[in-house]
């Protein structure tokens, strides 16, 4: 059957979205590896660290103890208590188990929230650049994305004034992501507090994607969940993936008013049901165990950040902000547009992959056209090798 005919048989909602651009880069890089090419991979945002041993031990104990049955849809009471307790200890929040739900990764938690809250015509404010899946998850549910452009010269900093100007009577959710994927920008706590305050006055939800909240290098780690007086208007989404190097384990969570958690639970009961039982035990081990591993990984990311930022700044024409969090750098490559037939970030990314064997993600996936994203969650060896290849590639143009 021709592709055009197949498309007409599909639902409107699936035709509104596209495959993840990040995963597309990963797939193409894997294809080249299978052909025997050595790829310096800055594509996927995935810690290079092994999952800490005490977390793996908790999973092994769960298997040996036959903890392999279904659990409650929202996760075990033990896990929900651990989520709430860890957040309270680290950020001063006061969530209860009834205000917490565990999901199959942070992306699943975001999907639940948007599908429950966003109807056709509802607007969601999203700062640019944005993580690749935000736009598609909102549009899949029929919502309208209202993009707020941030200023590269100010480090892609989001301010409350920018957000407030974008609010309309149709605004349902303001999405914030700090530290940001892809830019690494960290929104100052005072700006986040202003955003939540005026959103609460207007009856608007603020959804805070805090996947990288522990990878904040400013010395001022902050969660919107600490603003306990505004709990009714806050949805905090977190993930163990980046914090504990548990990407493949797939465990995320949401903290929100109990009335919303019930609705997220209802949707989850008809999709995935509970997160994997064994992973839940591992998550309890992560949340209740020593947090020294988190501090050690954060320290190494800061070291790797310095190496990659310094190296990129040695390449003539590239403009590079030093990120304040997460593990991405987002250089502006537009100085090379018009050279070698390149006209966009996508062109640069394609040429880097196929000619220099360096995998990066084009900025178009994140709402900009002049950038590429590099993840420095990899070894120093890969970073230096990739930088050398990039210098040679750009120097040949």
Major pleated sheet = 7 strands, mixed
Estimated share of beta-strand residues:
5-15%
Mean pLDDT: 95
Helix content: 40-55%
Assembly state of the chains shown? single chain
Number of helices: 14
Q: What's the SSE blueprint?
A:
Elements: H1 3-9, H2 12-15, H3 21-34, E1 40-41, H4 53-64, H5 77-91, E2 100-103, H6 106-117, E3 123-128, H7 132-140, E4 144-149, H8 160-166, E5 171-177, H9 189-202, E6 205-209, E7 234-239, E8 252-255, H10 258-269, H11 277-288, H12 292-313, E9 328-329, H13 345-356, E10 358-359, E11 361-362, E12 372-375, H14 380-395
Parallel strand pairs: 1-10, 3-4, 3-5, 5-6, 6-7
Antiparallel strand pairs: 2-8, 7-8, 9-12, 11-12
Give a description of the structure.
42% of the residues lie in helices and 13% in strands. The chain has 14 helices and 12 strands. The strands form 3 sheets. The chain has a 7-stranded mixed sheet with strand order 2-8-7-6-5-3-4, sandwiched between helices. A 3-stranded antiparallel sheet has the order 9-12-11. The longest helix is centred in the last third of the chain and has 22 residues, at 292-313.
Short description:
The protein is an alpha/beta fold and 397 residues long.
List the defining traits of the structure above:
397 residues; alpha/beta; 7-stranded mixed β-sheet; 3-stranded antiparallel β-sheet; 14 helices
């Amino acid at each position: 059957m021709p592709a055009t005919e197949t498309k007409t048989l599909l639902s409107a909602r699936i035709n509104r979205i596209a495959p993840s651009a990040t995963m597309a880069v990963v797939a193409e890089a894997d294809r080249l590896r299978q052909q025997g090419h050595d790829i310096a991979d800055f594509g996927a945002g995935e810690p290079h660290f092994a999952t800490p041993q005490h977390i793996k031990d908790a999973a092994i104990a769960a298997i040996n103890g036959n903890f392999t049955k279904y659990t409650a849809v929202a996760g075990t009471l033990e896990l929900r208590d651990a989520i709430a307790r860890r957040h309270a200890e680290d950020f001063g929040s006061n969530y209860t188990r009834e205000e917490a739900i565990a999901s199959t990764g942070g992306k699943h938690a975001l999907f639940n929230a948007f599908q429950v809250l966003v109807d056709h015509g509802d607007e969601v404010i999203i700062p640019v650049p944005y993580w690749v899946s935000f736009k598609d998850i909102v549009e899949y549910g029929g919502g309208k994305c209202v993009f707020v452009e941030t200023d590269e010269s100010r480090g892609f900093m989001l301010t409350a004034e920018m957000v407030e100007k974008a609010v309309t009577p149709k605004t349902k959710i303001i999405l914030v992501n700090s530290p940001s994927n892809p830019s690494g920008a960290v929104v100052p706590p005072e700006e986040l507090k202003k955003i939540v305050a005026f959103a609460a006055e207007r009856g608007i939800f603020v959804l805070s994607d805090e996947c990288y909240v522990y990878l904040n290098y400013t010395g001022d780690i902050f969660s919107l969940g600490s603003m306990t007086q505004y709990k009714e208007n806050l949805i905090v989404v977190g993930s163990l993936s980046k914090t504990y190097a548990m990407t493949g384990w797939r465990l995320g969570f949401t903290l929100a008013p109990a009335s919303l958690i019930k609705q997220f639970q209802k949707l989850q009961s008809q999709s995935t049901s509970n997160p994997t039982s064994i992973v839940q035990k591992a998550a309890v081990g992560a949340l209740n165990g020593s947090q020294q591993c988190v501090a050690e990984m954060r320290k190494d990311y800061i070291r790797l950040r310095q190496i990659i930022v310094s190296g990129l700044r040695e390449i003539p024409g590239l403009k590079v902000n030093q990120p304040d969090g997460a593990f991405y750098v987002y250089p502006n490559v537009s100085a090379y547009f018009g050279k070698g037939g390149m006209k966009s970030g996508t062109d640069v990314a394609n040429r880097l992959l196929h000619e220099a064997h360096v995998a990066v993600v084009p900025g178009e996936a994140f709402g900009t056209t002049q950038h590429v994203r590099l993840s420095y969650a990899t070894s120093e060896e890969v970073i230096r090798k990739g930088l050398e290849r990039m210098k040679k590639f750009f120097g040949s143009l």
